Amino acid sequence: WNTPDQLLQAVCNSLSAAEIEANSKIREVYVGIPGEYVHICTGEAEIEVPEGEEISEEMINRVQDMVADKLNIAGMGGYVLHRSPAWFVVDEGKKTMTPLGVHGAKLAAAVSFVVADPQFIEDMKEIFGALNITILGFLAPTLGESLLLLSLDDRDHGALLIDVGYLNTEISAVEGDAITFHTVLPMGGCQLTVDLCEGLGIPMRAAEQIKRAYVFNPDEFEADQYLEADDGEGGHLSFPREYVAEILEDTMDSLCEEIALCVKNDAAPHLGARSQLFLTGGGIALMRGGREHLAACLNRPIKVPVAKSAKMNSPVFASALGLVDLIFDSIEQQTPKDSGGIKKLKGLFK
Questions:
Q1: CA atoms within 13 A on the CB side of 121
Q2: Radius of gyration of the chain (CA)
Q3: What span, in angstroms and rounded, lies between the C-alpha atoms of 192 and 82?
Q4: What is the pLDDT of residue 348?
Q5: pLDDT in tens, 22-37
Q6: Is the N or C terminus of the chain more exposed, i.e. has fewer CB atoms within 10 Å?
Q7: By the 8 A CB rule, do 149 and 307 touch?
Q8: Are residues 199 and 205 in contact, defined by beta-carbon separation less than 8 angstroms?
Q9: How is residue 338 annotated by DSSP?
Q10: Rounded CA gap, 181 and 270, in Å?
Q11: CA quadruple 95, 101, 102, 105: dihedral sign
Q12: Percentage of the chain with pLDDT > 70?
């Protein structure tokens, strides 16, 4: 997206690589929409339950439809990717995700809608149309990774997922099956690499090697070590850790401060006393001491959740795995009678 004129070629390259891996021609695709092109709308509504009746599937859908009407989702002009409940409450009871069959006089719900930028949708339709490839659906990896990485218990208490990627950072508050808050910060792991590249006067590839080797909480031996990388021309680069630290930690502090401000000023109202914070993405989660450095800045403990995948359980693949999980769920809902094969295929990622 930084070079729109190269977008078509990038899509073609990705398709070609996937076809080689799958050893088959791709004719249909699901498209994951980046966080920059989605926004979250949340609201609440309440309906009356007829006397003597238990809560039905129709009532659950009706109260969620009422939220959509209150938010005027249809009039927004966006593309609704997902409708997800954060909670239901029967009468004055506790929050629940399973109100079906419960007796009561009132059913209330908090519902989240993930809405996509229509221009992104049109761009994708144009690109894949030109390639004669059918788009089966649009999905939000942001929601997928939240549901995949965070347990239902964590989500019941409200959780915050911080996905520090290469170019940006997504921050999502999650409750129940819904994202209740979402924003994108224009900073990520790439900024650390760029500043090292400029500060040390070395190629980006070498700067990335040094970034990955850096330790934020070094022991006595690591504090005196030199950080090394290839210069790309057969040579060798070496820098004292303290020299690298001046550049890297200053940029890291700026990133952490931006995240901390967002959590304090914007995300906090969507979290509770028992809410936990989680870090994923390939930006800093793989750097030794990166999680601890962010936790110290936020003054809150942070965990790195691990996807239940034998082959792709790195934070780098969190968003991709979340998208795959949503795709399988979508296919299962469309073809329930033939879901056995889908579950078997899904198991390959576990």
A1: 15
A2: 23
A3: 34
A4: 45
A5: 899 999 999 999 999 9
A6: C
A7: yes
A8: no
A9: G
A10: 7
A11: positive
A12: 94
Strands 79-90 vs 28-32: parallel, antiparallel or unpaired: unpaired
Token representation of residue 267: 């995300």
pLDDT digits (tens, 9 = 90+) for 269-318: 999 989 999 999 999 999 999 999 999 999 999 999 987 765 677 888 89
Class of residue 49 by CB neighbours under 10 A (exposed 0-12, middle 13-18, buried 19+): buried
Distance set, CA 62 to CA 57, 226, 260 (Å): 9, 63, 38
For residues 201 and 142, give the distance between their C-alpha atoms in angstroms, rounded to a whole number: 35
Q: What is the C-alpha to C-alpha distance for residues 70 and 66, in angstroms, rounded to an integer?
A: 6
Query: What are the distances in angstroms from CA 197 to CA 2, 194, 210, 233, 238?
Result: 19, 5, 10, 16, 13
Rounded Cα distance between 334 and 193, Å, is 43
Tracing tokens 């239902």 back to the chain, one arrives at 152
233-256: per-residue pLDDT in tens?
888 999 999 999 999 999 999 999
Dump pLDDT digits (tens) for 159-183.
999 999 999 999 999 999 999 999 9
Which residue has 């989605």 as its token pair? 38
Question: Which residues, including other chains, have CB under 8 Å from residue 350's CB and lie 6 or more apart?
Answer: 308, 309, 310
Buried b (16+ CB within 10 A) or exposed e, 177-207: bbbbbbebbebbbbbbbebbbebbebbeebb
Residue 336 has pLDDT above 70, yes or no: no
**Interacting residues of 102 by C-beta distance below 8 A, sequence separation 6+:** 54, 55, 90, 96
Burial classification of residue 235, based on how many CB atoms lie within 10 Å of its CB (0-12 exposed, 13-18 middle, 19 or more buried): exposed
